[in-house]
Amino acid sequence: MTPAILEARQVGFAYRGAAPVLSDVSLAVTPGRSVALVGESGAGKTTLLRLLLGLARPTDGQILFDGAELSPRGRGRMRAFRRSVQTVFQDPYSSLDPRQRVGRIVAEPLRSLGLLTAPRTQGDPANVRVAAALDAVGLPADAARRYPHEFSGGQRQRIAIARAIVCEPRVLLADEPVSALDVSTRVRIVDLLAELRETRGLTVVMVSHDLAVVATLCGHTAVLERGRIVEQGDTAAVLGSPRHPYTRRLVDSVPRLPPRVQA
Length: 263
Fold this sequence. Notes:
By secondary structure, this protein is an alpha/beta fold. It has a domain at about 5-95 and about 170-250: Rossmann fold. Helices cover about 35% and strands about 20% of the residues. The strands form two sheets. A six-stranded mixed sheet has the order 6-7-8-3-9-10, with helices on both faces. Strands 2-1-4-5 form a four-stranded antiparallel sheet, with helices on one face.
């Protein structure tokens, strides 16, 4: 069995004085097998993503990275984790600093991880890596000299993805990465994520309400209801032949076009 890169092991989480948001959640993220977290609003999907990203610590259970517990006290291990696990947020309009040029935005992980070792010249490694990341998401190199407001929503999300892949992570955590985009742009961004998964060996963990996106991009799906995983497995089986009543309700709630009326 392939060892997990990231794992939630019997995880629980509650804010102080509040009811649990997550209870007894176990999920393994193995290399090359992208995972979707689905469920209604308030089910705990984004909280679980935050735990996997190390932005919060579980109240119970463990988050493991490469088989060892993730702890902010292990600075060397957290540094390796930050380089290996990057994120793309939901809103491409608020996730980019409007005061900074795109090149500096994309290079931010290189700075925060201490990977900028050369002077900032046109041919330095940072500029080369930024240009390569922009090219990988379908944006020209001269985009680095421009500001976020000069780009459309879909292009801004490409910039956010470039920022996430510039340090060549192993895992991309994405919180509703296409929900703020129009339908045609969603398709292009999903195609881009699928391409990056194949060409860069990325493992994607994605929160999504859009089951069509899930079916296209993720091989494994975990269904959360009220902070618990009620069903998980191969996406084709979970969405095609759901066993749990809650999963069946989710699948049945997907809008379908009415049958065509013959003229």
